[in-house]
Amino acid sequence: MISIIKAERLKWKKTFIPKLLWLAPIVTILMSVGLMGGNFFQTGAYNWWYVLLLPGSLTICCALVIEKDAKLKYHSVLALPLNLKKIWFGKILACSTWLLLITIIFLVGITAGGWIFGNGLSISESLIGSLLIFLTFLWQIPLCLFLAAKCGTYLTILINIVANVVGIVVFADSEFWFSYPFAISARLMCPALGILPNGLPVPEGSTLSSAEVILPGILISLALFTIVSLLTARWFQKVEAK
């Protein structure tokens, strides 16, 4: 499996994926500096991050991973003496390591920015918030890989960004947040970082500040990651050269 992941990452060298790893966190931080600043720098950056920049970046990454093989009509994949399920899981794990790296880069940047502009969040809060974002976005990786294979790059980006925005606007602060997986990240940020889905602070005494939602949110996300990975792997096993 490690060799499959390394092979996947080698394919990325001449794509936009490695640049996106740095560009997305930098753009998020600069946007927050320009639009928020001061003690709201960190909370503003986090809000931009999980609402728009990370969903968009992750979708682009997954779409480009599939696009590389799709241009060759999957001949390069089908020619390998490997189970197609293993190749699919390799793609998922490669994208998962990319998500972990971009999360760490954002965390380092947001922490350094906090020292300059003032800490709105403690380091422990940032660590917990970043970890929750990573865990609750994992399930979108196999979904985006599948959508990219079925719908193409641009439509996949549109579908996933719209789905995330709907989750944040409609479901994240409702009692039915758990029924719409795209809302989970924003909902968990309420108790973890004290940020409402619209970027404002959670009012004191609000039920949205309850940490009881964190464990269910993590479990739902990890269960979805497992289920969607297995289902899409079964589909990929039946793929044929076009």
Oligomer: single chain
Rg value: 18 Å
* Global structural class: mainly alpha
Distance between the termini: 26 Å
What form results from the Cα inertia axes?
A: globular
Low-confidence stretches: none
Strand/helix succession = HHHHHHHHHH
Biggest sheet overview: none
What value does the average pLDDT take? 89
Tally of helical runs: 10
Strand content: under 5%
β-strand number: 0
Question: What does the model show?
Answer:
The protein is an all-alpha fold and 242 residues long. It has ten helices and no strands. It has helices at 2-11, 17-35, 41-70, 75-78, 84-117, 123-137, 140-151, 153-171, 184-193, 214-237. It is globular and about 60 Å long. The two termini are 26 Å apart. The model has no long low-confidence stretch (mean pLDDT 89).
Task: Summarize the entry for a quick read.
The protein has 242 residues and is mainly α. It is built from ten helices and no strands.
Jot down its keywords.
single chain, 242 residues, mainly alpha, 10 helices
Give the helix/strand layout:
Blueprint: H1 2-11, H2 17-35, H3 41-70, H4 75-78, H5 84-117, H6 123-137, H7 140-151, H8 153-171, H9 184-193, H10 214-237
